[in-house]
C-alpha cells in the first residue's frame, strides 16, 4: 500500500494513442512473436515522490481471427514521468490501441519546510 504523507494530493490523467499499425503495415498488425511498444508520458506537474499510476485500454482494434494476447503496464515511474508499455505475442494482430492513464500522488507544498 502506498501511504501519502502530504495534505496536497495531485491527480493527473490522460489518454494516449500508442499506435495505429494497420494504416502502415506495422509489426503489431503484420508481425508475429513477441512485440512491444513503449511511450513516455510526462506529468503536467512534478510530484513530490513517485505517484501510483494505473493504465487501462480505452480503445483497441484487434483481428477477430486470432487470440487476443496483451499486457499493459506502467513502468519506470518517477516524479516527473513514466512509460506506458504494451506488449503482445504469438500470432495476435493489433490494429490500434489507445490507453487511458491516471497518476495519484503527493505534491510539494510551498509552505512546507524541509528540515533534515
TrEMBL record:
Domain of life: Bacteria
SUPFAM superfamilies per the UniProt record, alphabetical: Agglutinin HPA-like (SSF141086)
Cross-referenced Gene3D superfamilies: 2.60.40.2080
Residues annotated as domain H-type lectin: 39-104
Pfam families for this protein: H_lectin (PF09458)
Protein name: H-type lectin domain-containing protein
